[in-house]
Amino acid sequence: MSSNMIVMGDVPGGGPARMDLAELLATRLLVQGNSGSGKSHLLRRLLEQSARMVQQAIIDPEGDFVSLAEKFGHLVIDGAECSDMALHAAGERMRMHRASVVLNLEGLDADQQMKWAAAFLGGMFEAPREYWYPVLVVVDEAQLFAPAAAGEVSDEARRASLGAMTNLMCRGRKRGLAGIIATQRLAKLAKNVAAEASNFLMGRTFLDIDMARAADLLGMERRQAEAFRDLARGTFVALGPAMCRRPTPVRIGTVETESRSAGPVLTPFEPPSAPVHDLILAPVPVSDFVARPRKAPATPQPDLLTQLAAHGEAQAAASQEEQQQEEPPEDQAEREARMNAILRDMLTDDETSFRASAVLYQDFLVRCRIAGLGRNALDLKAFNRALATARSGVSEDMSASPDWQQAEGLANALPEDLQSVFLFLARAAIGRLPCPSDAEIARVYGTVSQGRARRLVEWLEDQNIIVLRADGMGRRVITVIGPGWETLPGVPQG
C-alpha cells in the first residue's frame, strides 16, 4: 500500500476502502448527509487517519473536533475570545509554523461565525508563497458558510464568508489548500462551491431535491436516487479519483477520539415520586432572583507564537549570565546604537520586508555575534519592538523626541505585527509628511497586498486609534487620536 493511502473503512463484501491522500489534496472532497447519517464521524475518521501525514485546519461551528487536540496536538482557537483581525493573522501564522488548528466557533451567532471563518480562511489564503505547504481545510456544516440563498445574516457577513469559501474551493489548490466541505443539505449549499469538488461521499438523505442533486453529482440515474434513503448510519456512497472510479458504498471505520456533542442516549424513563405540581409550580424564593455570579472564563491557552516567544525569552534569560561573563561590559547607549545600525542595514535589503520576523531574528542574532555583541543581544519580544521602530523609518533625532516616546507608548498596546504600521503612520504625522500610500503601508507590514494595507488602516480606525478623512481632492489624511498629530494629504493609490 502506498504511503499516501489512508483507510476510511471497508467496502461491504469487498475489502478495505482506501483514500489516496495526495490525490485528495489536488481534487477536494464534498461530504453530504442528513443529521444522524454519520457525517461528523466520517470527518473525524479522515482527520485522525491523516493527522500525522498532513497539516490540518478545521472550521468547527459546534465544537465537535476540539478533542483532536488531546490526541494529536491540534491548537484550539476559541473564536469567542478573538477578533477578526487576530483570526486573519492566526490563519497566516498557522501556515508559516505548520501547526494544525481547530477554529472553535461554538456559541457565536451565525453572522459572527461567518465573519470569523472568512477572516481565518483569508489569512490562510494570503500567506506568502514560501509557506504554501499542503493543508487539509475541513469545513463542517458548510451550508452555514456558503449558503445558496440570502438568510437572516447580514449581506456583509454573507459576502465575506461566501467569497472565502469560493476562494478555498476554486483557487485554493495552487496555494496548497485542499477544501473538504461537509453539509446536511446540498440544496442549501452554494452551487459554485459544491461544483469544485471532484470527490464525493454521499450519506443518508430523505428530501427529493437533495437526493436528486446527489445523484447528479455521482452520475447516477434519477431512479437510483431512492437508494440514498436506505443507507445505514455510517455508510456513504463514494466516488472520485481519490477513492474509486464508480459509485461504491463505503462503511466508515472506528475512531480514536470522541465528540463533545454526541447525541442523546435513550435511558429508562422514571416519573418523579413527588407531586409534579409541587415540583414545577412551587413559589420561587426571593433569593433565587439575585443574579448568580458567572463562572470565571477559563484561562485561554497561549497560541503557538506566544509559546515560541516564551521559549525564546527563557533561553535568553538562562544565557544572560553566561553572556555577561564571556563579554566585557559595554556602554548601554553605544550597544543599542550598534544594534539599531545592524537593523537599519538589514532593512536596506529589498527582500527583508517580506521575511517572517522569526527568520529576521535569526539573521539579526548572527550579525550581532559577528559584531561582538554576544549570542543573545535581544530576546524575541525586544527584537520585534526594535524592528517595528526601524521599519517606521524614524530618524535618530526624532526618536529622541518626547512625541516619539509617546508614539512608542501607544504602539506597545497594539498587537506586535501592527506596531510597525502604527509607528510608520505616526512618524509621518509627527513630521507633517504626506499620508503614506497603501503600497508603502503594505511594504512596512511585510506584504504586497494593498487590500490588506487598507484593512489594517481601517482596523486602527475601528479601534479609535486614528481618524481617516479625505480632503477636497480625495487625498487621504490620517490623524492620531489623543496627541492630535496629523499627516499632510496623500494619495492612497500612489
Explained architecture:
This protein has 3 domains: 248 residues, P-loop containing nucleotide triphosphate hydrolases (Rossmann fold, 3-Layer(aba) Sandwich); 77 residues, no CATH class; 100 residues, Arc Repressor Mutant, subunit A (Orthogonal Bundle). The protein contains 18 helices and 13 strands. The strands form 2 sheets. Strands 2-1-11-10-9-3-8-7-4-6-5 form an 11-stranded mixed β-sheet. A two-stranded antiparallel ribbon has the order 12-13. β10 and β11 form a beta hairpin. α11 packs across α12. The radius of gyration is 28 Å and the shape is elongated. About 2% of the residues have low confidence.
Primary descriptors:
single chain; about 500 residues; alpha/beta; Rossmann fold; Arc Repressor Mutant, subunit A; 3 domains; eleven-stranded mixed sheet; two-stranded antiparallel sheet; 18 helices; 13 strands; about 40% helix; about 15% strand
Domain tally: 3
Largest sheet: 11 strands, mixed
Low-confidence stretches: 321-330
Rg from Cα: 28 Å
CATH class descriptor name of the largest domain:
Alpha Beta
State the distance separating the first and last CA atoms. Answer: 57 Å
Number of helices: 18
Please tell me the overall pLDDT.
Answer: 81
| Helicity range | 40-55%
C-alpha geometry: elongated
Structural class: alpha/beta
CATH superfamily of the largest domain: P-loop containing nucleotide triphosphate hydrolases
**Which architecture of the largest domain does the CATH hierarchy give at level 2?**
3-Layer(aba) Sandwich
Beta fraction: 5-15%
Main sheet strand line-up: 2-1-11-10-9-3-8-7-4-6-5
> Got a strand count?
13
Can you tell me the CATH topology of the largest domain?
Rossmann fold
